[in-house]
Design a protein that fits this description.
The chain has a single domain, classed as Rossmann fold (3-Layer(aba) Sandwich), CATH 3.40.50.720. It contains eight helices and seven strands, in the order βαβαβαβαβαβαααβ. The chain is globular, with a radius of gyration of 18 Å. The longest helix has 29 residues. The chain has a seven-stranded parallel sheet with strand order 3-2-1-4-5-6-7, sandwiched between helices. Strand 2, helix 2 and strand 3 form a beta-alpha-beta unit. By secondary structure, it is an alpha/beta fold. Belongs to the short-chain dehydrogenases/reductases (SDR) family. InterPro entries: NAD(P)-bd_dom_sf (IPR036291), SDR_fam (IPR002347). This is SDR family oxidoreductase.
Amino acid sequence: MISLKNQIVLITGASSGIGNACARIFAGAGVKLILAARRWERLQQLADELSREFGVETHLLQLDVRDRHAVESAITSLPPAWSAIDILINNAGLSRGLDKLHEGELPDWEEMIDTNIKGLLYFTRYIVPGMVERDRGHVINLGSIAGHQTYPGGNVYCATKAAVKAISEGLKQDLLGTPVRVTSVDPGMVETEFSQVRFHGDRERANKVYQGVQPLTPEDIADVVFFCATRSPHVNINQVILMPVDQASATLVNRRQ
């Protein structure tokens, strides 16, 4: 396992769920953290907690990954002490709705496409050239089992995660000949705010998604992300698919009554 001490790690969607868990596990390794999210108060609270618990330095970016100009401005105007990003964790993402394609809400489609695909692309485009120039770096994309298997009502969300899979594979090919690594971590069911967001705040409906199942936790995913980031420099974990024991595919789930 390589040491990450003093490396600069940028995490998108850091204010909750998997992003928050990644911030905590990487903070324990002594990195410097750039935390990006829309919710400023949550970012500040997380930064305060990480400072107290781990004594790490943090740099906060309040932005929406869908805003290309905001992403460009945030990355190009980073202070010199924060500009040499070693690890990019493209975690920001969401799902909206579970409608049939022909009944879907267009704003939901646009939000998923703009966040899950374009937001990931913006950060990758503005950060990876520096990694190539410095001869070091690692891009870790948070995909999903939905990128490998579609399911009823998943249509556009599954398409966005299939795009993340293709982008990860394409980026790895484009970076051949450089030491920059590319990893896609693709979970099944993880209990976060994901389902609440999908169902537009309907907690009762969201809770039923995990009823009778022991899902993965954000910490489970962060543990895998951290494992991938700490392998020897000549080792690239291309892709990790992980699911709870109670899940066998995107649609096959064992529910205990």
